[in-house]
Amino acid sequence: MKNVDQNTITQAVLERMGQMPDARLKTIMTSLVQHLHDFARDVALSEKELMQAIQFLTRTGQTCDDKRQEFILLSDVLGLSMLTVAMNNQKPAGCTEATVFGPFFVEDAPKVALGGDVAQGAPGKPCTVSGRIVGTQGQSVGHAQIEVWQADEEGFYDVQRPDLSASQARGSLQGDGDGRFHFKTIVAQAYPIPTDGPVGDLLRATGRHP
Description:
Helices cover 34% and strands 11% of the residues. With 210 residues, it is α+β, with helices and mostly antiparallel strands. Among the domains are: 1-45, no CATH class; 107-192, Protocatechuate 3,4-Dioxygenase, subunit A. The protein has a two-stranded antiparallel ribbon with strand order 1-4. A two-stranded antiparallel ribbon has the order 2-3. The longest helix has 21 residues, at 23-43. It starts with 8 loop residues before the first helix and ends in a 5-residue tail after the last helix. 12% of the residues are buried.
């Protein structure tokens, strides 16, 4: 790009994207460029700070593997995950509010029979969980799919334990025709988010508790 400065670079970039065939992608990228450039101007972003941000995002990607998604964790702590879920899952009054899956949700959890053991050997105090799923008018929601994933007594999920060869404290079950469900498990403990990666560094730098 020639003959551009801090006042004209944004429009120059947008013009380069003017022929984008995907209308939705064009909408997203146009807004992203505009807001990103405005942010840089607003905080007077330095070259050093830009490089620090690039290095932070690089380390975030390098921390991800098949059991850990550091970018989801970053999205969570920035509030973007919850904002997106709330916008895309608006419900009538009286419904259970939507929430994020979090970084430890795993697709295709082991199938567990109604009344079965979700803990599967996870350490903790045994307990039984039961309930009934109903609609806004109190009507039964029969055969609802229920996903369970929880921390053990030490505050760890199974995916945080590299020595495990099978899932623990995680399962997928189905309620009965009246919307009722029950299963055996352990008492879940509160868990801190992982702080050994770049998101942990961000929390410490901003004075936030994990």
